[in-house]
Amino acid sequence: MTPFRLLLSVALSMFVFSQPGVAENEAHPATNRVPAHVMSYRGANWLERDDRYLLEQPDRVIATMQLKSGDVVADIGSGSGYFTRRLAKAVLPSGTVYGVDIQPEMNAILAENCKQEGITNVEIILSEEADPKLAAESVDWMLLVDVYHEFQQPIPMLAKMREALKPGGKVALLEYRLHGDTGAHIKLDHRMSVEQVLAEWEPAGFRLVTRHEFLPTQHMFIFEKTDLVTAAP
Ligand SMILES: C[S@@+](CC[C@H](N)C(=O)[O-])C[C@H]1O[C@@H](n2cnc3c(N)ncnc32)[C@H](O)[C@@H]1O
């Protein structure tokens, strides 16, 4: 795909496929970052685009998490399940993956995609803007790909996510880079700097374990749940 067509397709997905009816919230008090629009289910095909495999390297991302059979993983903002379905295979034979999304239509697309691929260890959860609807201390790992910047209520949502992690539970977070040129084809409010991520996540009770920069356009952060929470939900 030429750079122009890539830019056009990204711009279309961000503008045309914004989800109407989702209440928008204020700037994050720690960073002044204003959340982006929630991407509508009408853009679900874009999440399955061919060139995504090279750019977002889902298998390498999941290998970096070092999942094992029996793990319970929540894909927060699972969309069409581009990552959910791969996570499901990575935790076989006895692990479970929760596909968590606020849009019932996205969940229906995920269900159909799992059915077509014969995947049976994905449980689909219709969540709420500030609540992933997961039981307390029930999850080993969470994955968030291109979704955190869409949370309209990031502070209470992170508090609920932290509650749902088991002690020592981890989160893999992927966000397009704000600085430099690599994320330049993505709208500004769909990109985050390392400083923004740390300023919003560390006070919420997440300790940075590692940061990986092998992806062409995105940061990958690994956080661990800690007891140190300084941000009130
Ligand atoms: C850009 S899509 C990314 C989907 C998927 N993570 C992927 O990489 O293919 C963002 C998804 O996050 C969902 N989402 C946005 N805010 C959410 C929230 N507070 N809780 C759960 N899902 C949310 C949207 O409905 C949408 O399906």
Relevant terms:
233 residues; alpha/beta; Rossmann fold; 8-stranded mixed sheet; 8 strands; disordered N terminus; binds S-adenosylmethionine
Give a quick precis of the structure.
This protein has 233 residues and is of the alpha/beta class. The chain has helices at 3-15, 44-47, 52-56, 58-65, 84-90, 104-116, 154-164, 194-201; strands at residues 72-76, 96-101, 122-126, 139-145, 165-177, 191-192, 206-212, 218-225. Strand 1 (72-76), helix 5 and strand 2 (96-101) form a beta-alpha-beta unit.
Secondary-structure blueprint of this entry?
Layout lengths: L2 H13 L28 H4 L4 H5 L1 H8 L6 E5 L7 H7 L5 E6 L2 H13 L5 E5 L12 E7 L8 H11 E13 L13 E2 L1 H8 L4 E7 L5 E8 L8
Parallel strand pairs: 1-2, 1-4, 2-3, 4-5, 5-6
Antiparallel strand pairs: 5-8, 7-8
